[in-house]
Design brief:
The structure holds 2 protein chains of 2 kinds. By secondary structure, chain A is α/β, with parallel strands linked by helices. Chain A has helices spanning 23-37, 72-82, 94-100, 102-111, 151-154, 160-166, 181-199, 214-217, 221-235, and strands spanning 44-47, 63-65, 87-93, 116-121, 124-125, 131-132, 170-177, 204-210, 239-243. Chain A is built from 9 helices and 9 strands. Chain A is globular and about 50 Å long. In chain A, 58% of the residues are buried. The relative contact order of chain B is 0.13. Classes of the chains: A alpha/beta, B alpha/beta. Chains A and B meet through strand 1, strand 2, helix 2 and helix 4 of A and helix 3, helix 4 and strand 7 of B.
């Protein structure tokens, strides 16, 4: 019988620790599939963040070097400059990339550093227990925005990807989601495209992935996926924000 | 050559190909020199980072990739780098960090000071760790110790701090560089992240959630620190033979003290000098050994008294310590310090 579904070669045989319905496991699998399909397992190096995905090196069967909170882009800069012929990617959450690591990220993009960032946006600090993130939308309740995020008290959420698209050194920026089969496929294509952009030396590439966090959103999985479509995408619209490759068809 | 140029040139000759930094006085000549030098060198990388925090993490990235990497700064900038230095220690990554220190705390000033002694020798960042700290007192020694710093960092997989000050960074002296190192001939590192080609994948991490595993990691670091403490202590003594009073000073302060001691010797005062070159590991045993025949020690620092704590630890109560320090970026002349030593010498009826 033909085997039609199996674990990607670049994922270890370790069960994920992520909560049920969390987007990280899905995203890990998609990245694993892309690494396999592009035959990158022996030349790719990942930079996991501080946050829920900090243990990514237990799941990916590739070289990985952990960064401290927010410093992924700086670490990846040093690494990629030292090894220009390898593929380097950071895997970062919203607090990591859009709060404590904003400076590192914006400057890496502005310098046109030739690595890829997978930016997982679930609008909360997951690992620390659901505090307000820089991408928590107005009205969203978290443990540090009781009664919902209010602009007067908490400020507005940051649309980091849009900001990065303005940077002259960024080459490819796309926002996707992992809440439906169609969006999952689009995410996979976007990641593959981002890696290709890096391999061709265009500069900084980033895929922002809207990802469900049912545990901290206090929703079930189906509600979480619906919430991404109905609420989150209003503030963070999906689509290609920048593509300098001239590939008119885009990622899809 | 100017001290800041010396450390930069020595680093390149010692095989450093990756420099990341951020401007701060009095060490700006280091990034300036590196930008020119590394851009002309195959495989050389220079980045003027957006912050000290970013530059130390770029060092981490290049070090993970196996390169000899360096950053430099002064006081306030070194404070910002502490996060990364703690991570370098936890991840067991080699790196060289130069601190051409200045007057502090806060922004302080840009005059030479030794106020970062505690920060350098006690780890400086969070967690249980130590850095190897080397304190040169001349441009020639700065060149030699830069070579040693890269070797020590690789050998022990640990960050090494070169602790100078604004005076060392700015002063000009003739220098003879050690033989240039061929980067291709450096020992192979079997832990680097280069893509898992033809070998199992690797990872480097500092998060160890299991307290027993973290404890084991701490013991592992401690065994390494014990080995360094045994094997890497560096110091110099002068005029020690017949001394009745030993001055203890490091870096530029030791050089000034030496001038003072030469002056005092001319007057017949039996004063010697102990100059710790490695501030961590500190030459505790060397100083303790002196207590067998000498009871009076005079610590001179360009701060309010930091190394004096290590001197007291070394003496284990077997001697009297007098301290004279000038913080804030004040540079004493040998004449001034000789007067202070001399008055203490006669006060203690040593002559």
């Amino acid at each position: 019988m033909k085997k039609v579904f199996s674990r990607p070669k670049s994922l270890k045989k370790t069960p994920f620790h992520y909560c049920p319905g969390c987007g990280h496991s899905l995203l890990h699998r998609i990245i694993g599939e892309v690494i396999d399909e592009m035959n990158l397992q022996e030349k790719i190096i990942g930079v996991p963040p501080a946050g829920c995905a900090v243990l990514a090196y237990f799941y990916f069967d590739i070289d990985m070097g952990e960064a401290s909170h927010g410093r992924g882009a700086a670490l990846a800069t040093g690494m990629k400059r030292a090894l220009p012929d390898r593929i380097v990617f950071t895997y970062q959450g919203d607090g990591d990339i859009a709060a404590i690591g904003t400076a590192e990220t914006i400057h890496a993009a502005s310098r046109g550093e030739n690595f890829t960032t997978i930016f997982v946006n679930n609008g909360v600090y997951g690992m620390t227990g659901g505090q307000m993130a820089p991408t928590t939308i107005l009205g969203q309740t978290t443990t540090t925005s009781p009664g919902g995020r209010k602009e007067r008290r908490d400020g507005f959420p940051i649309n980091l990807s849009e900001m990065l698209a303005v940077a002259k050194g960024s080459a490819y920026i796309e926002r996707t989601a992992v809440n439906t089969p169609a969006n999952i496929l689009k995410t996979k294509k976007a990641i593959a495209k981002a890696f290709r952009v890096q391999m061709e030396g265009y500069g900084f590439s980033l895929v922002e992935v809207l990802s469900p966090c049912p545990t901290n959103w206090k929703m079930d999985t189906v509600e979480s996926c619906k919430w991404i479509d109905e609420v989150m995408t209003v503030h963070f619209p999906l689509g290609i924000l920048k593509d300098i490759t001239g590939d008119k068809k885009g990622a899809h | 050559m100017r001290g800041n140029h010396v450390v930069a040139e020595a680093a390149v000759r010692a095989g450093c190909r990756f420099y990341f930094g951020y401007p701060i006085t009095p060490q700006n000549e280091i990034p300036e020199y590196m930008s020119e030098r590394l851009s002309k060198l195959e495989g050389g990388v220079f980045i003027q980072a957006e912050s000290e925090v970013a530059s130390i993490h770029m060092v981490i990235g290049a070090s993970m990739a196996g390169g000899r990497a360096m950053t430099s700064s002064s006081g306030p900038g070194i404070s910002l780098k502490q996060e990364g230095i703690s991570f370098l220690s936890a991840l067991e990554l080699p790196a060289v960090i130069v601190n051409m220190s200045r007057g502090g705390p806060g922004l302080g000033n840009i005059a030479p000071s030794q106020s970062d002694y505690f920060q350098a020798t006690r780890g400086g960042g969070h967690g249980d760790y130590r850095n190897i700290v080397l304190a040169p007192n001349s441009c020639q020694e700065l060149a030699n110790l830069t070579f040693e710093a890269f070797d020590l960092a690789d050998q022990y997989r640990t960050p090494v701090i070169i602790l100078g000050d604004g005076m060392l960074g700015q002063m000009m002296e003739p220098v003879e560089f050690p033989v240039e190192i061929q980067t291709k001939k450096l020992p192979h590192k079997d832990w680097t992240l280069t893509g898992a080609k033809g070998r199992p994948s690797r990872f480097l991490r500092s998060l160890i959630l299991d307290p027993f595993e973290e404890e084991e990691h701490n013991w592992k670091l401690m065994r390494k620190y014990e080995k360094i403490t045994k094997e890497e202590v560096r110091w110099e003594t002068s005029f020690a033979e017949d001394a009745k009073l030993m001055v203890v000073a490091f870096g530029i302060a030791a050089r000034i003290a030496k001038g003072a001691i030469m002056r005092l010797r001319e007057e017949g005062l039996k004063v010697g000098l102990i100059r710790p070159i490695s501030l961590w590991p500190f030459p505790y045993k060397v100083i303790k050994e002196f207590t067998k025949k000498i009871k009076h020690f005079f610590v001179f620092e360009m701060n309010m008294g930091q190394m004096i704590e290590d001197v007291k630890l070394a003496l284990e109560g077997n001697g009297e310590v007098h301290f004279y320090g000038r913080p804030g970026g004040i540079i004493l002349t040998p004449l001034e310090i000789s007067r202070v030593i001399s008055s203490y010498y006669y006060q203690k009826k040593l002559g």
